[in-house]
């Protein structure tokens, strides 16, 4: 449980899953913002992508740049099996935590 994913890490991983082959930095940023319903900084997304890759939850590949991008390369991300397992564990943990709660909880103001 010490390695349980945080909400932002989950949002980034799920954005990659939803985007599939089109998951590069900017699209991940926009998808994460849409799912969270708030603005997030590009730096936060790129830092999280780097951290998730270091943890072995995603892998990236760099593709050559196009003329439309001024020749700048683009890095694409894929969630690997360990990332899927981490997402499943996070979902299952939260489900277990909420399973004994009847909402709205009585006595909570």
Protein architecture, described:
By secondary structure, this protein is mainly alpha-helical. The chain has a single domain, classed as Orthogonal Bundle (Arc Repressor Mutant, subunit A), CATH 1.10.10. It is about 50% helix and about 10% strand. The protein is built from four helices and two strands. It has a two-stranded antiparallel ribbon. Helix 1 (about 5-20) crosses helix 2 and helix 1 crosses helix 3. The mean pLDDT is about 90.
Keywords:
Arc Repressor Mutant, subunit A, mainly alpha
Largest sheet: 2 strands, antiparallel
Radius of gyration using CA atoms only: 17 Å
Q: Could you name the CATH topology? A: Arc Repressor Mutant, subunit A
Weakly predicted, low-confidence segments: none
Task: Give me the secondary-structure category.
Answer: mainly alpha
Q: State the end-to-end distance.
A: 30 Å
Considering the protein shown, what is the CATH homologous superfamily? Winged helix-like DNA-binding domain superfamily/Winged helix DNA-binding domain
- Based on the structure given, which CATH architecture is correct? Orthogonal Bundle
Number of E-state strands: 2
Q: What's the pLDDT, averaged over the residues?
A: 91
- Helix and strand string, N-terminal first? HHHEEH
* Helix coverage percent: 40-55%
Trace the largest sheet across and list its strands. 1-2
- The number of distinct structural domains comes to 1
Q: Helical region count? A: 4
**What percentage of the residues does DSSP assign to strands (E)?**
5-15%
Q: What is the CATH domain class?
A: Mainly Alpha
Indicate the overall shape: elongated
């Amino acid at each position: 449980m010490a390695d349980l994913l945080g909400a932002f890490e989950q949002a980034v991983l799920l954005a990659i899953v939803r985007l599939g082959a089109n998951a590069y930095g900017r699209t991940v940023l926009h998808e994460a913002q849409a799912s969270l319903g708030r603005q997030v900084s590009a730096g936060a997304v790129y830092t999280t992508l780097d951290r998730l890759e270091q943890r072995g939850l995603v892998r990236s590949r760099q593709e050559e740049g196009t003329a439309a991008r001024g020749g700048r390369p683009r890095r694409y991300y894929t969630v690997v099996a360990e990332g899927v397992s981490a997402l499943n564990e996070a979902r299952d943990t939260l489900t277990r935590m909420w399973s004994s709660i009847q909402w709205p909880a009585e006595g909570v103001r």
